[in-house]
Amino acid sequence: MARDNARLIIKLRSTEGTGTTYVARKNRRNTPDRLVLRKYDPRLRRHVEFREQR
Q: Is residue 1 scored above 70 in pLDDT?
């Protein structure tokens, strides 16, 4: 199957400045704004906000 062009690969970077990143896919049509998720930061050993990096 072909990949859907509406979905793009984004990097989520920690807002705490540790440099930790996650890779995710998002649908450009459903979520045109920048994505913000609360995920685990292994350097801090706690959950923090990760924002979409462009």
A: no
